[in-house]
TrEMBL record:
Record organism: Pseudarthrobacter enclensis
DNA-binding region: 37-56
Protein's UniProt keywords contain DNA-binding: yes
Record keywords: DNA-binding, Transcription, Transcription regulation
Domain (HTH tetR-type): residue spans on this chain: 15-74
Protein's UniProt name: TetR family transcriptional regulator
Pro residues bias (residue ranges): 192-202
SUPFAM superfamilies associated with the record: Homeodomain-like, Tetracyclin repressor-like, C-terminal domain
Amino acid sequence: MSLAVARKPLRADAARNVDKIITAARHCFREFGPEVPLQTIATTAGVGPATLFRNFADKEELVLAALNRQLRISVDPVVDGALADIDAAAGLFRVLEALMDAASADANLLGAVAGRRELLTGITGTLMESVSVLLARGQGQGSLRQDISMTDMFRLLAMLISVVDTMEPGSDAWRRPLALVEDAIRSTRPARPLPAHVPVPAPAGAAQQPDALR
């Protein structure tokens, strides 16, 4: 489920530099937030700015590469397991859980990308192919609604990823909206309570959130 970041094969030393830069980027975005300067990332990686820009044209390209790394590590194995599971609906929701967990863990990376639509298209490229397979299987098994389309799934996924903007980085507040999506697209609503409600955090220096958001 890789992002579309085209690269030529790299020499061993250049590949090591790319690895160091991506590792440093994930650390710096988590530590300092989405506005962290590229100079800080280069210093953390132990490379010069010229090396960073030789490999990544701008911050967005670096962010996409860092997200790609995280998704390959944390989501791709879950996708493989879901496709091998006899229960397609259960596999589908494990994939969505893994994706949301990764999005929450790297919320500052997501926040550093200006074009959210382009980002969503990138991170859901081959993932949506697997989701399509799981959706069709689940509908064939009678566990998922027959009237759900892949356009619906793409938009539901966009809605879920946007939840990250309403919670603290690393929070699992996404579990409740994901459960609501599951209730909506399963043919029979699961007999379980919703996950715990997590209030929307107030911006720094802002007044207390109204009751509707607590």
